[in-house]
Amino acid sequence: MASVVPLKDKKLMEVKLGELPSWIMMRNFTPNGIVGAIKRGSDRYYNKYINVRKGSISGITMVLAAYVVFSYCLSYKELKHERRRKYH
How wide is the angle at C-alpha 74 spanned by C-alphas 58 and 66, nearest 5°? Predict the structure, then answer.
């Protein structure tokens, strides 16, 4: 017998495409809700990649790669303007 899980308690990967708009509207978009979601995400990342018995450099490497991509996106307009152009 399958138990029925309320839509609010479902994870994103368990939500069907037709239920997605109503699932998004049930999320908490207040400042406290957003801060809580960021904290849960960082705790999950820390426990999965950093706080492990036999860790590797992959957890820190992902953070550094995300930082490089983010900083590149922020400075793309200036970099695009200064790149070499073919003058004719």
Answer: 10
